[in-house]
Every structure is written in structure tokens, then in C-alpha cells.
Amino acid sequence: QSALTQPPSASGSPGQSVTISCTGTSSDIGGFNYVAWYQHRPGTAPKLIIYEVTRRPSGVSDRFSGSKSGNTASLTVSGLQAEDEGDYYCSSYENNNKYVFGSGTRVTVL
Amino acid sequence: QVQLVESGGGVVQPGGSLRLSCAASGFIFNNHAIHWVRQAPGKGLEWLSFIHFDGSETNYVESVQGRFTISRDNSKNTVYLQMNSLRVDDTGVYYCARELGRRTKQGFLDPWGQGTLVTVSS
Q1: Quick one: pLDDT at residue A43?
Q2: How far from the centroid of its chain's Cα atoms is residue B89's Cα?
Q3: Is the pLDDT of residue A17 over 70?
Q4: Residue among B117, B115, B112 at smallest CA distance from B3
Q5: Which residue is closest to A41 within chain B, CA to CA?
Q6: Quick one: closest CA in B to A58, which residue?
Q7: Torsion of CA B56, B61, B65, B67, to 10 degrees
Q8: How far from chain centre, in Å, is Cα B34?
Q9: In this structure, are residues B74 and B65 in contact, taking their beta carbons and an 8 Å threshold?
Q10: 3-class SS of residue A92
Q11: How many residue pairs bridge chain A and chain B with CB atoms within 8 Å of each other?
Q12: Chain segment A77-103, per-residue pLDDT in tens
């Protein structure tokens, strides 16, 4: 169960878009549409922002969007705002009722 | 509102034990699987364990298999994580989180508790 691979950091100016990749294998991301993304700001609980690859929970801004191609999932944050700063993690279901998180990406709004 | 509150963290020596609790409110508890996730200092999130809505299925990450045991008491709306043979690298903040869907096990976690800190040190 190795962590999914994410870039350590991403940044953009206010109003710009940033896209974070999350690379796994055919045993996790490539094999299932059970991909989720979480936002984690320091001192707070992680928050689900995307599930089932593309779906947004109620109350989550439509500036967040998800996609998947093969063994790689992606999260795009459009119209960057200062409040978007934080750590972002992908996750995926694996075989046999196990789950794995990505290594995490720190997003900075310049 | 839907809420999860962890408790039971603290300082323990290597080889010791702790039992974490996750108390839930604001939803029909016995309809949802619960997961435990931890974050070591300066590290990312790590999935640890899950228990299905009725306790019929459980699973663990390899690094805690055989040392940690997850259980639930649906009459008390509480999930437990019994942690034995603790190691220094088990140090971190431990979160419980609810599976988003009713009776699903897809790994969509919402919401999360605020976490409880476990420190394993001599």
C-alpha cells in the first residue's frame, strides 16, 4: 500500500487556476472510480471536496473540480482565492477493502 | 449537526497500549462505516482502518495489522481503536471519519473529527 503520488507543492495568483495530479496504479485509481479529494488547513479537520472522481458534496464551491484518466486523477481549483491555501490530498479505494491517500500537495496563493 | 469527537489520546511508552474512542452524533450511526486516519508530525494523511456499518467487515493498513483492533458499539454511537504494542512511529494525530454514503465502503470520508494526539515516547 504505497501512497499515491502527488506533487509536493503548487501555487498560483488570485484568480488563476491550479491543477494537482494524483498518480496511482491499476489496483487503485485505475481500477475504481472511488477517488476523493480533501482540503486540510492547519489546525482544522480535513474536508471532503470531491468524491467519486467528479462529484462535489453539498456546500463545496464549484471552483473545485475533479477528473481521472487511466491511473491518474486530477483536482483543479479555479479562480484561486486566499482561503484555498492549504494541503490537498487525494485518496482511492484499493482492492480488498483497503484505502490509500496521496502524499499531499501544499497549495500557496501568491 | 453531524459530528464526530475523538478522545483517548495521550502519552504512552513504546510497547504500551491506548484505546481511542470516536463518539458520533447527528446522524443514524448504524447506517455508516467509520474509518480511522492518522497524520504523523510533518507527514501526510495515512488511512489506518475501517469498520462497516454493522461491524461485519473490518480492515487495516499493513503497518498496524495485528496490533490495532477496530470495533463499534452501535448502542453507544461509538467506534473504538484499541492500539497495542505501540511504537514511536505511531505518534501522530488520529482522526475518525464517517463514510459519506449509507452502508457504503467507498472511502469517501465526511465529516471528520478534530483529532486526538497520540505520542509514543520513552
Answers
A1: 87
A2: 16
A3: yes
A4: B112
A5: B114
A6: B110
A7: -100
A8: 7
A9: no
A10: strand
A11: 74
A12: 999 999 999 999 999 999 888 999 999
* Residue closest to B82 by CA, chosen among B43, B36, B41, B40: B36
State yes or no: cis peptide before A14, omega within 30 of 0: no
Q: Residue B111: its chain A contacts at CB < 8 A?
A: 45, 47-48
**Contact by Cβ (8 Å): B94, B20:** yes
What local confidence, expressed as pLDDT, does residue A95 receive? 82
**Residues of chain B whose pLDDT is less than 50?**
none
Q: How many CB atoms lie within 10 A of CB B26?
A: 12
Whether A88 and A40 have beta carbons less than 8 Å apart is answered as yes
Q: Are B35 and A89 an interchain contact pair (Cβ–Cβ within 8 Å)?
A: no
If you ran DSSP here, which 8-state letter would residue B14 be given?
Answer: T
Mean pLDDT computed over every residue of chain A: 96
Is pLDDT above 70 for A1? Answer: no
Which of A98, A100, A105, A107 would best serve as a mutation to test chain B binding (most B beta carbons within 10 A)? A98
Instruction: Please report the pLDDT score of residue B64 as a whole number.
Output: 97
